[in-house]
Input
Amino acid sequence: MPTARRPAALLPAPLARTLGFALLATLGAAEWARMLEGGGLGEAIAWVLAAVLAGETVAAAGRLPAPARVSAAALAAALGLVLAALASGLEPRLLAPARWPELSAGISRGLETLSGVTLPYGGFDPWPDVTLRLGGALLVTLAASLAGWPRAEERGYPFFALAVLLVLVATPVTAIGSPRSLALGAALAALTVCFLWLERLPLRPGIGVAVLGGLALAGALPLSAAADREDPWFDYRTWAEGLGTPASMRFDWEHSYGPLTWKREGREMLRISTPRPHYWKLENLEDFDGRQWLRRGVPDPFGSEPEADLDEDWDTRAGWTATARVTVRALRGEELAGAGTTVAVDAGSRRASPTFSPGTWQADAELEAGDSYSVRFHAPRPNPVQLAAASSGSRGEQGDALELVLPLLLAEPPPPDDTRRPVTAMRLKLRPFAARGQPLAQNERRGTSRPGVPALRNSPYWRTWRLAQRLKRGARTPYEFVRRVDAFLDRDFRYDERPAPAGAGEVPLDHFLFTGRAGYCQHFSGAMALLLRLGGVPARVATGFSPGGFRRRQGEWVVRDRDAHSWVEAWFDGIGWVTFDPTPAGTPARSLIAAINAPGETGTTDSAADAAGAGGARGARDPVGARGELDQPGPAAAAGASRGDGGPGAVLLTVGGGALLLVLLAALALVLRRHARARPQLARADRADRAVADLVVALRRAGRPLAPGTTLFELERRLGARREGSAYLTALRAARYGPDDSGPTAEQRRVFRRELAAGLGWRGRLRAWWALPPRRR
Output
């Protein structure tokens, strides 16, 4: 009676396995790539090709003799992961051992950012993008290595590989949903069948297709229902919030001069990638309403374009123009951070528009943690010599920054024939520093002007006006006057976050200057800007954050809630807006006078300026506090960290790493080629012959090599002095020459391994483990 033959397979087994994996992996990788803005099949194919190559190399290691099989497979898997990293677009230099800390920190930062970012990700911070791409490529390669891993009876761990591939599909579904849930369910079910059973499908016409179609239809409905749920499979948002940054925080940047009550817990507000320290501005406070500084509520009279905030020759000073990449952490609001005057913003999918104050920008919607954008800004950094040679306001530029609203102590009644209310405030228009004559007081309601000094006498700021004139007297340049104001605020004033409030009939800044003499950054910056305007120097208050702490490894400035700050910008003709910070050093918002050279730069320093100037302003302050987690480099070091440019050493490491990778690949190829020649003999040998060959190798590794011609019986008599030790050799000899081919047991193997190590110390035990691992091959 003829025996039944197994029907011919639809495809050869090796090709079916590879094809089934490649199809399912492509689906998973393409789904994962949906979490990248613009990502799709192109990225997926590159990841899958690298994974298939790695998986086939791991599977090829299974054809080697038992002693080399696992080691070769592990080496192939490791090289496959390296190849996957390169296929993901990772910079090769980051694979050099010297760059591993940078890579680790970057991935950690990417994971933190992704916990609160909007997907698909299209921000300017590169690390979330790198993390997503690297994660997808590594998961595909891990699945390929599991699918091809050599085993005693069969190839790989397909169900473990399937679990990894399902993670690739499920993660984007839980994060951003799926617009084609039914199609995704059908494709996933069909490709899962292909991956697991394609090599077993028969070649009869229509049967394979019918089986696949039926299983796909059976699996599509539940899978599509799971993908089409209104709620995700697990609460991704709650999980992400637990891993992400703390609760976000909104700041009111306008001045109030009341006690500071907001908490400072060290929460990260922003991360800014740029080589040099700057004050990170969010708003300009350009209008003084008689009590406090406010942001402009109407369009600027000179237009909202950034050029209205810049000197006419600003573009000739390329060294003062730079770019920065800003990543939002816990800061809430629409305001976009920049430095000096922000010239342009690229906010990705969001729309950025100028505010009423030129040089500041805002987004079309509130920013969220993980959002990032790129800004191009112009921030003058002149030295004292340049400042001393510059005029201020003489060209008529920034004339609106020489205006103040003054409340009147005694209201001016209207004329007898005028029924309007009395005038309680007037607008004071001040003359530039070098111009003669007193200011003008404008009655905007009646459209009249008169000398401003009588109006000042009838205002709470008469003492402040006289102080400004006293500090201005004898100052030869606007810069000398600025330094005198700064020096005045450095004498007999102290930092206090809960200053005594102004009394009845007093205004906060006049009270600060003459009575309280204690306050925080709002008081110091508000008083300085007021004195500068009264002295004829266009000035305004800027609000945002001091430079923060620099992380050398990432090349980023980490800005925290305690860095919230307020400072002064003064206008100098031919230069532009220059930053000054009158707040005492050592305050929570660590600061520097950005107009003077930062620490580590060459050129004229603050000390030299103090010696040359008449006012004796304070020296530049350290932008980085004494935090253990933060490094303080000079500008050159910061620039190198930001670019990730390590010089010739980094190039050598990258080249050396590439060469090492090629050597490892060549070594693996030689091993495979060497053992391929012995494959026919091994194929013909039975299990007992292999066990004997393994024994010979084990004795050599244990330092007990056999002389040529030694038989198993002789070896049993020589090494089997104990009954337990000889049992392994007896079972091996019986399997080789007797009817019982079961071979030694695991316990006999363990006892024999212990006897191999007897008397050789810990090194002997290690060699015995290497010679005879604790498993049967």
Observations:
- Residues 648-677 form the longest helix (30 residues).
